[in-house]
UniProtKB/TrEMBL annotation, chain A:
It comes from Halobacillus litoralis. InterPro entries: Rieske_2Fe-2S (IPR017941), Rieske_2Fe-2S_sf (IPR036922). This is Rieske (2Fe-2S) protein. The keyword Cell membrane does not apply. Its cofactor is [2Fe-2S] cluster. PANTHER family: FERREDOXIN-RELATED, RIESKE DOMAIN-CONTAINING PROTEIN. SUPFAM superfamilies: ISP domain. Residues 4-117 form the Rieske domain. One of its GO terms (molecular function) is oxidoreductase activity, acting on paired donors, with incorporation or reduction of molecular oxygen. Keywords: 2Fe-2S, Iron, Iron-sulfur, Metal-binding. The keyword S-adenosyl-L-methionine does not apply. Belongs to the bacterial ring-hydroxylating dioxygenase ferredoxin component family.
TrEMBL record, chain B:
Keywords: Hydrolase, Lyase. Pfam families: Amidohydro_2. Gene3D superfamilies: Metal-dependent hydrolases. It comes from Halobacillus litoralis. The lineage of its organism: Bacteria, Bacillati, Bacillota, Bacilli, Bacillales. One of its GO terms (biological process) is secondary metabolic process. GO terms for molecular function: carboxy-lyase activity; hydrolase activity. Residues 46-348 form the Amidohydrolase-related domain. GO terms for cellular component: cytoplasm. This is Amidohydrolase. InterPro entries: ACMSD, Amidohydro-rel, Metal_Hydrolase.
């Protein structure tokens, strides 16, 4: 099994993300507000923007009615720095506007203070 | 993996000025109004741009914190050197946009002159790849002509910039602007600003306005053609910037059909509208719409020419099109035309010889 320490748990506060590498691949490591870690390919599926330059935020949801916003998933959505496409961290990196598309993801585990990405 | 470099002629790059940089190029009393009276240009849009960082790519902010597009060195690093640009055409930021001021045209004209001097000084003279646009306060036609006469023969000024706003520029009243442009081998570049494109008002949501921008571009092309601009000024060309290109076949068919029925009203047209478009109107590709190759080639086929569209990035704005990813993978000859040759053939002042795309 291929695995690699991509950062320390203390490198990322809940609600933040950072870029790292896994082998030769650029990886985006995200820590959701509940403290969990996730890792995705650090490149938007649309035009290849570096996702770590975007933001982790919430989302207006499809439960919203015309003229009335519902906002949740705070800190669980990655938004692309270019075209603003939204990817749901806790739903396997699926794009909100088109859930058939998703960011390629990596398995993550935490041992001691190491965040380890593995295949 | 290193990226393939693309010898691109980029037809839409937004450099950005900050008001304090313009002061040295402004006379009084205009300097006073900015320095002491805190003048900023009027704003109209009721929304923000609901992306990550407003109008800009979130990663294009200058590392020292200045706004995206305001620093040549960073633009060189992030765009020109990284992509492999041969040439890029500066189209200004949206603020200030002298021709979009709805009053105080003296200030608009002064800003246009200051902006042109700043653009030449800080950008065109600093990077041989960059070409520029002449900013004018076109609401005041005669002042606009004076400004074109003043800077239009600069070897790196390639077009006069007109906003797509609430003025239809094909009206004969504005033809002296086109006469002056043609005299200096300048084309006309039209870029939307923050106009109401929706029956004189704003739609409720930004996404509606942004979706409908091409309709404003269609209005201007139709207006310029049926007002006879292109037969009157046969060496003039019009570049439509940031309206996309997928509406082109519809507009050609519609204008030709209308011309067959209603030519009587516009007898000064010597060619059918679609032929005028093919000869004298060009369209920037951005913002592209994720066409696959089959659909893209079908569209080219419907246009009847592969020489009407020119690649643009729109850097540093959020709806930037990546030269590597925005269009489908095209055959080398067509790629060469869209990424380089079409723009070279359109702008007389851009050097004709170029590198091959590998």
């Amino acid at each position: 099994m291929r695995e690699q320490v991509v950062c320390k748990t203390t490198d990322i506060q809940p609600g933040q993300m950072m870029e790292s590498v896994f082998g030769k691949q650029d990886v985006l490591v995200c820590r959701t507000p509940d403290g969990d870690f996730y890792a995705f390919r650090n490149q938007c599926t649309h035009q290849g923007a570096p996702l770590h330059k975007g933001m982790m935020c919430g989302a207006t949801t499809e439960q919203s009615e015309p003229g009335e916003y519902q906002y949740c998933h705070r800190g669980e959505i990655i938004r692309c720095p270019w075209h603003g496409r939204e990817f749901d961290i806790k739903n396997d990196g699926r794009m909100l506007a088109n859930p058939d598309k998703k960011l390629p993801s990596f398995k993550v585990r935490v041992e001691n203070e190491n965040v380890i990405v593995y295949k | 993996m290193p990226k393939q470099r693309i010898p691109l002629v980029d037809t839409d790059i937004h450099e950005r000025v900050q008001y304090e940089e313009l002061l040295q190029y402004l006379d009084e009393p205009f300097k006073h109004y900015i320095t002491n009276c805190h003048w900023i240009q009027e704003k109209h849009m009721p929304y923000t741009q609901p992306s990550v960082a407003g109008v800009d790519r979130a990663d294009a902010v200058v590392p020292d914190g200045r706004p995206a597009g305001s620093d040549l060195a960073f633009m060189q690093e992030q765009l020109l050197d990284d992509i492999g640009h041969e040439f890029g055409i500066l189209t200004g930021a949206l603020d200030p946009s002298p021709s979009s001021m709805h009053g105080w045209y003296e200030m608009a004209a002064a800003l246009a002159s200051a902006y042109n001097d700043w653009q030449i000084d800080k950008w065109l003279d600093q990077d041989e790849r960059l070409y520029g646009s002449v900013h004018v306060a076109a609401q005041d036609r005669d002042e606009a002509v004076k400004e074109i006469e003043r800077v239009g023969d600069h070897p790196k000024m390639v077009q006069v910039l007109l906003p797509i706003d609430d003025i239809m520029w094909g009206d004969p009243y504005y033809h002296p602007i086109f006469e002056a442009a043609e005299k200096h081998d300048l084309m006309i570049g039209m870029h939307h600003n923050e106009p109401p494109v929706y029956y004189g008002k704003w739609p409720r949501y930004f996404i509606e306005w942004h979706t409908l921008i091409p309709t404003a571009h269609m209005k201007q092309v139709t207006n310029m053609i049926f007002n006879g601009v292109f037969d009157k000024f046969p060496n003039l060309g019009l570049m439509m910037i940031e309206g996309g290109f997928t509406f082109i076949p519809h507009l050609m068919w519609k204008m030709d059909q209308q011309f067959r029925d209603l030519r009587h009203e516009v007898p000064w047209l010597k060619r059918k509208p679609s032929d005028i478009m093919k000869d004298q109107v060009r369209f920037c590709t951005q913002p592209s719409e994720e066409l696959n190759k089959k659909d893209f080639m079908s569209l080219i086929d419907q246009m009847g020419t592969d020489e009407m569209i020119c690649f643009a990035t729109d850097y540093p704005h959020w709806d930037y099109d990546s030269p590597h990813r925005a269009l489908p993978n095209l055959d080398p000859e067509l790629k060469q035309k869209i990424y380089s040759e079409n723009a070279r053939n359109f702008y007389p002042k851009i050097p004709k010889s170029g590198g091959e795309i590998t």
